[in-house]
Amino acid sequence: MRDGVALEVKNLTKIFKLYRHPADRLKEIFFRKRLHKLFYANKNITFSLGQGETLGIIGVNGAGKSTLLKQIAGVLEPTSGEIFRYGRVTSLLELGTGFNPELTGRENIYFNGLLIGMGKGEIEEKMESIIQFSELGEFIDEPLKSYSSGMVMRLAFSIAIHSTPDILIVDEALSVGDAHFSAKCTRELKRLKRERLSTIYVSHDLNSLKLLCDRLILLHKGEILEEGNPEQVINRYNFLIAQLNQQEGLELRTTADYGTFEGEILKVRVFGVESEGEVIASGEEGVVEVEFRANRGLEGVTVGILIRDRFGQDIFGTNTYYLQRPISAREGEVVRVRFRMRFNLGPGRYWVTSALHTGERHNDRCIHWMDKGAEFEIAGVKGPLFTGICRLEPVVEVERGRFGEKGEQ
After folding, report:
1. Taking the CB of the first residue and of the last residue of the chain, which one, N or C, has fewer CB atoms within 10 A?
2. pTM score > 0.85 for this model?
3. Which residue has the higher pLDDT, 208 or 227?
4. What is the DSSP pairing of strand 167-171 with strand 89-92?
């Protein structure tokens, strides 16, 4: 590492030549006539990755994320710019990269391990640990071509983390595995982060980005559109999605406040029916109240709410479209919409984001998105105690007898 920096990317640009027909490559050589157009997959990208930092990269398909990662991993050479890597880089890019489908899982541990810079002695020393973490068991000596995509991911991730990298690059790999193994990988990434592993993480799972990343970069058309804390960048990403769907008419006041403003959310309020304040007991009936003004006539619009915890994780969301209560308002009219429900949440502080839009989702046609419109606290519990972030209110049933025997009724 260099002064706490694991990686530096400076003015990185990657240009591809695009040809209409494969034969045009030869024609261009012989006739010395340009038959291609230039495509900038990445353009003047500059950022650094700190030691022990987890950096997330998001963007719509075609934004240039995979191209950027391949250059950092050394798979592609940049057209211009520089990449400074201070330590071993291990990458999980396209699933199956660096594996031979004809070899067994065990043989591929050697094959892939050598490719990513592990020594033969190091691989032999860590072999059983790699197999144990992958949970492939009896399948480890079967050919890789018989593996499912999830099994390949298990093997690839296990090899990657046992290579003791200084920088780990993960491109959507965790989305392939089952929920159990993805959770296991997430725990392992957190553990390695505490040991100062630097990670670049690409995913369309916004909650996992909030959970794992210290900082996010939003790429769009090959350039950095936004860089900062996860909440700020994800809000900008949501605005970008809405903008791409609507094409025009959207105004961005801040990353947390945007829309066409044909209607405008004036106030969001949360209170308990009994407490009459923003401090609510778990299990108490409460109200989320959204007040908006129609700046023009609105017909059949949707009012939505989203509750997030202090880590920015989405806890619960609903809207009047799901609840089959479309809202209409005359120009200039102020409308108050209340969502009444039991707040079966674990103790802690929460934020409410609200949106006014058409259709099912706010990016169908976003009239107004207001992030963190209100804050409330869950303190104390009404009824039986519980642990976790939500109360599911189970009913306990107890049966006695000898079960599973012949003749059981």
Report:
1. C
2. no
3. 227
4. parallel
Long-range contacts of 100-104 (CB under 8 A, 24+ apart): 100/144, 101/143, 101/144, 101/145, 102/143, 102/144, 102/145, 103/143, 103/144, 104/140, 104/141, 104/142, 104/143, 104/144
CB atoms within 10 A of CB 283: 19
Residue 377 DSSP SS3: strand
Task: Tell me if residue 399 falls in helix, strand or coil.
Answer: coil
d(CA 62, CA 126): 38
Mean of the per-residue pLDDT values of the chain: 89
CA separation for the pair 298, 165 (Å, rounded): 55
What would the 3-class secondary structure string for 52-104 be? CCEEEEECCCCCCHHHHHHHHHCCCCCCEEEEEECCCEEEECCCCCCCCCCCE
Which helix (H) or strand (E) is 39 found in, with range?
strand 36-50
Radius of gyration over every alpha carbon of the chain, rounded to an integer in angstroms: 26
Q: Please name which of 250, 272, 252 lies closest in space to residue 350, comparing C-alpha atoms.
A: 272
What distance in Å separates the CA atoms of residue 263 and residue 330, rounded to the nearest whole number? 10
Q: Which residues contact 191 (CB under 8 A, 6 or more apart)?
A: none
Q: Per residue in 352-382, pLDDT tens?
A: 999 999 999 887 789 999 999 999 999 989 8
**Residues 156 and 99: beta-carbon distance below 8 Å:** yes
- Coil, helix or strand at residue 108: helix
